Amino acid sequence: MTEHKLEFAARPDQAAGAEILGFRPLYRQVKAIFVRRLVEGVWAPGMALPSEGQLASEIGVSQGTVRKALDELAAENLLVRRQGRGTFVAEHDERRILFQFFKLVPDDGIPRFPDSRVIGIAGGGADPRERQALELGETEPVLRIRRIRSLGTSPLVLETIVLPARIVPGLEDGPVPNNLYSLFATRYGITVAHARERLKAVALDAEQAGHLGVAPGTPALAIDRIALSLDGSPVELRTSLCLTQEAHYLSDLR
Amino acid sequence: MTEHKLEFAARPDQAAGAEILGFRPLYRQVKAIFVRRLVEGVWAPGMALPSEGQLASEIGVSQGTVRKALDELAAENLLVRRQGRGTFVAEHDERRILFQFFKLVPDDGIPRFPDSRVIGIAGGGADPRERQALELGETEPVLRIRRIRSLGTSPLVLETIVLPARIVPGLEDGPVPNNLYSLFATRYGITVAHARERLKAVALDAEQAGHLGVAPGTPALAIDRIALSLDGSPVELRTSLCLTQEAHYLSDLR
DNA sequence: TAGTGGTCTAGACCACACA
DNA sequence: GTGTGGTCTAGACCACTAA
What we know:
Two copies of one chain form a homodimer. Chain A has two domains: 26-89, Arc Repressor Mutant, subunit A, CATH 1.10.10.10; 97-249, Chorismate lyase-like (Chorismate lyase, 3-Layer(aba) Sandwich). In chain A, 26% of the residues lie in helices and 32% in strands. Chain A has helices at 26-39, 52-59, 63-75, 94-101, 128-133, 180-188, 206-212, and strands spanning 79-82, 86-89, 104-106, 115-125, 141-150, 155-164, 192-203, 219-229, 234-242, 247-253. Chain A has a six-stranded antiparallel sheet with strand order 4-5-6-9-8-7. A two-stranded antiparallel ribbon of chain A has the order 1-2. In chain A, a hairpin with a 4-residue loop joins strand 8 (219-229) and strand 9. The radius of gyration of chain A is 22 Å and the shape is globular. The two termini of chain A are 39 Å apart. In chain A, 28% of the residues are buried. At the A-B interface, strand 7, strand 8 and strand 10 of A face strand 7, strand 8 and strand 10 of B. Strand 7 (192-203) of chain A pairs antiparallel with strand 10 of chain B, so a sheet runs across the interface.
């Protein structure tokens, strides 16, 4: 079991050692303990957590404090809570990926998970942009995957995925699954927690257009994604060129 | 003061009348009371709310229940809570708009609020797409505003805004402010609570390209936005054509 | 029926802002 | 100092799930 230490005792009136650090609520410290267990794989995807009461007495805080920590993790999609059943570590199943990470939907409005066909996979050196985005060392190699994704019959997305070779050893030796993030979790113990996407409109060059079966110069949506793991370190740089004649990128502003 | 009625008494063991309705937690009912006050303008933007204790005793629930309702509203950006000061109704000031509703940022990464220049404003009939998106009656008129927005010196966005004429009477008679949502709130009592955007990549036609000072056929990001008010009714249909040579659309996936 | 998360309450104390 | 929101606790009961 992961070792843990609280800056504060369970009861505020027994608090000590707060002079140097800024104030950090107890439930945040408890949350940090839980995050560490997720990072270290002590709690693996799909697993049921101990009940709130068990966690509370184990750590030595009240059930309400544990609850607040678990609620925040559930709000961040790292845990799933189900009344009457328990609290579970979130899985990168298709439904979750579709909802959380796949924003390109057909104009008919029904989200679907796209097929994919790998057209290239190779290791190599990183260019400066990749090195910066993935926080790589000076000569650290990367693995590049190129694939074409389609929602129906015709190609829709030309995808270039760049991964630090260090974190996905042996990936190039086997087939690349459609759902890459699920593989990260099961094979490499890496949880993709969130991602930042930058979108631009571009005109396809001849090579890109050829892969997608359209005329050169066709406008396409260029999506640069940086995916971050649980601990905030970059895991993937993915550039997608999307045809948007029959699909669109959906963004909810709240 | 808004009249309110709770389905359940304050204490669960005094509950009654739950047989027909599904279970609805007390704090959700309290939240609904608060939303009504926001919709009706009893609580206006910038106002300080009564303290948690005052609200609790007024409504007849515990402070914790009031807190949970207020927390949800704060999470939805409808209220702003500040420790030591109080709880306030959110305002559509530039900072909030910039953060919540303006996702186009310069490639240097520093968000700025764009200037805008109106190039056309006129009333008229709605086309079927507008009628459907804005949930308009058969012959209900709309107001169309067209403007050009720029972040630095050169034009960046060509914007077409369609509003139900009914909800913005007299808007065409005065100057159109840069920050439209702030005007909605102050002049018409309408709070834009969230929005849904659909993005596509398109090639600009000659007229569009002319306004933006680029060559026809230049790729641009087309953003269709539907803005929804507090009660979920559509308030605005906005189509933006954005040049993305020196800017990008930022989307955070969590 | 037992066990889980979800709701609600009551009370104490802490961090923060402001006069 | 006074008042506000924020944290933490303890205990009771409710809603849901599964055996």
